[in-house]
Amino acid sequence: MTKDSVYQQLRGHLSYLGLQRAAEVVASHLEDAQRDHPSFTAFLERLLAEEVESTEKRRLKGRLRFSHFPVVKRLTDFDFDAQPGIDRQMVEELATLRFIEEKANVLLVGRPGVGKTHIALGLGYLAIEAGYRVYYTTAADLAARCRRAALEGRWATTMRFFNGPSLLICDELGYLPLAGDAASAFFQVVARRYEHGSILLTTNRSIASWSEIFEDSVVAVAILDRLLHHATVLSIDGDSYRMRAHRERLAEVRKGVVAGTISE
Ligand code: ADP
Ligand code: MG
C-alpha cells in the first residue's frame, strides 16, 4: 500500500467509527509517523480495519433484527426463468437501490404465489446490506398497530416510527379490506412518507380495484396519488410458484406410481 492510501484508509476507518478527533490527529501526525515509523502506521491501519469490519457486522446484524423480516430471501435465489412474467431488467434497476435515494416507491402487483414477497425481501436485504434502515410489515398489521396506538394515546410516536426507516416494506395489501379507521391510518403513513422515504408495497389487487380494498374511492385515490407520483410499478404476470412446485411434485409422484417405483 502506498503512503497516501494508508493515510486515506486510516482516515476512512476513523470516520466510519465516528472517531473524528483521532482522524484530525492522524492528519497532523501522519507525515512524521510515516517517516519515522512506517510499520507503526501500517499496524494502526490494520488494527482499525479489524475494528471497522466487526463494527460493520454488528451494525448489519442490528439493522436485520430491526427490520422484522419474516424470513430472509435473497434476490440471487430468485429463479427468473421460472417466472417469465416478470421484467427482470426492472428488478435489476431496483436492485441498484437508486429508488431509495430518490425516496421513490415500488408497487409489486400480482396474484398469490408469483414471488412478490420474495422480491420485496430480496430488495430489502440489499438495502440493509447497503446500510439503510428497512422495516417490514403487512398492510393489515400496520393498520392494526396504528389503530391500537390511537386508542392508547401513542399515535404520534407510532407515526414517527413508521416514518423512520429509509424503506418501509408493506406486504399483502388487499388480502383483507382496510376500511374506515384502518384506511385512514394507512393513508396517514403514506402521506407522511411521501417524498420523505420509500415504500415498497405488494398487492394481489390491480390498481384499478383499490377502491374495493379501502371501501372508499376518495381515500383510495388520495393514497394512490401519493404512492404513484414517484413510483415503479412492477406487475408480475404468471403462475404461482408454490402451485407450480406443488404440481411438479404431484407429477413426480404420478410418474413414480405409473412406473411402479412408488406404491399407492
Ligand atoms: P407472493 O408473495 O407473490 O404470494 P412469495 O414471494 O411468497 O409469493 O412466493 C411463494 C414461495 O415461492 C416463496 O417461498 C418464494 O421464495 C418462492 N418463489 C416464488 N417465486 C420464485 C422464483 N421465481 N424463484 C424462486 N423461488 C420463488
Ligand atoms: Mg406474499
Describe the structure.
The chain is α/β, with parallel strands linked by helices and 264 residues long. It has two domains: 3-64, no CATH class; 75-233, 3-Layer(aba) Sandwich (Rossmann fold). It has helices at 3-16, 20-36, 38-67, 88-94, 98-101, 116-129, 139-151, 155-163, 181-193, 210-214, 217-229, 241-259, and strands spanning 105-110, 134-138, 167-173, 198-203, 231-236. Helix 9 links the parallel strand 3 (167-173) and strand 4 (198-203). Helix 2 runs antiparallel to helix 3 and helix 9 (181-193) runs parallel beside helix 11 (217-229). It starts with a helix and ends in a 5-residue tail after the last helix. The model has no long low-confidence stretch (mean pLDDT 91). The structure holds adenosine-5'-diphosphate and magnesium ion. The site of magnesium ion has 5 residues, from helix 6 and strand 3.
Compute the number of structural domains: 2
Note the main sheet. Answer: 5 strands, parallel
Uncertain segments of ≥5 residues (pLDDT<50)? none
Going by helix content, strand content and strand pairing, the class is alpha/beta
Ligands bound to this protein structure? adenosine-5'-diphosphate, magnesium ion
